[in-house]
Fold Galactokinase.
Amino acid sequence: MPTPDLHAIELAETAAQAFRDVFGTEPEGLWAAPGRVNLIGEHTDYNEGFVMPFALPFYAAVAVAKSESWEFHSTYGEGSTVRADSVEGVEGWAAYIAGVAWAMNESGYPVAPVRIAINSDVPHGAGLSSSAALECATLIALADLYGHEIDRAEAARIAQKAENEYVGAPTGVLDQSASLLCTEGNVMFMDCRDFSREQVPFDLTAEGLVMLVIDTQAPHRHVDGEYGARRADCEEAARRLGVPFLRDAPRDAKLDDDRLNRRMHHILTENDRVLETVEILKRGNVSGIGDLLTASHVSLRDDYEVSSVELDSAVDAALGAGALGARMTGGGFGGSAIALVESAAAQKVEAAVLEAAADKGLPTPRVFVARAAAGAHRVS
C-alpha cells in the first residue's frame, strides 16, 4: 500500500469532520483516490489499445462507516446529504457512490448500507477524472469495510461497470485504472486488452522540465452524446472489418466511409504513439516525447474530432510560446490540455495561454504544474 499522500490526508480529515458533523458518529476509516492525467493514448482504452496515465495530486477522499441505511454527504458548496433505502435508482452526484455499491454486489462482492462523507479537490468537469476518483475511493473503502480482497485491475472494471451501467456514461477503463493502479513518480503503461501494466519512470525534474495542466474551464461531460458516438463509430468500423476491436485492424484497411476511416486512423496511430513514448521514456529522454504529444492532439482534433476551440487555443498558444509538446487530454469536448515545458519557460507559456483565451473571449483557464502522485490508498 502506498504511503498516504499528505494532501490526501488533509482532504480526508475534512471529510472525517464533515462525517462527525452530519452523522454524529465517528467514521470507521478514511480513504482517498486521485484524479489523473493521460499523458498519451486517448480513446484507445475502449478499443483494447494502449494508454499512459499518471495520477494527479488531487484526490477524492471519503470517510465511511457501516450503517442501517444508505446515507451520502458531500462537502461541495454548502454541502448536501442524500439518503436512500437501497442503491437502486440514486441520481445526481450520489449515483457515483451508489453505483459502485451496486456494481460490487453485481460482481459478487456484497456490501451493505454505509454512511459516507466525501471531500474532493479534483477539478469537476475538467477531464481529470473527478468521477473515477470518487468511484475508486468508494470502492476501496467498501472493500475494506466488508472484507473483500479485490485485485486492483478487477476493481477498475467494477468501477467502470458502475459508470457505464449505473450512471450511464460509456467510458473505457482508463480513468479507474489510473486512479487505482498508478504509482508515485511514474507514468503507467497499460495494455487495455489484458490489463498488463508497467510503471515507467517519469522524472521531469531531472531534465529541467515541468508538465503544465491547463483546465480550460470549458466543462465536458461523458454522458453527452458525442463521446458515445465516437465509441459507436469504432465499434461499427471494427464490425465492418470483421475484427474484435480497432486495435486489430490491418494497417492497410480501408472502408467506404471517410468518417469511420478517420476514427480508425486515430486509434491505430495513437497506439503507435503510445508505444514510441514508452521506448523514449525508458531511455530517460522525457523531452523527446514532445512531438508525439502534439501529433496526438492533431489526430484527436482532425481524425477523431473531439477537440474544442478552448482546447485548440490552449495547445496552439503553448506551442507558440515554446512548449516542447502539447495536447488535449481526457475525453475531449472541453476539459483540459497538457503542455511539456522547460521549467524556465513555464511562466511564459502560462501567460500565453491566458492571453490567447482572453483575446478569443474564452473562459480564463486554470493552469497548474502536475506531478505523478500516489494511486488510491487508505489514509487511516
About this structure: Residues 258-282 form the longest helix (25 residues). The domain at 6-200+373-378 is CATH 3.30.230.10 (Ribosomal Protein S5; domain 2). The two ends are 12 Å apart (CA to CA). The chain has two domains: 6-200+373-378, 203-370.
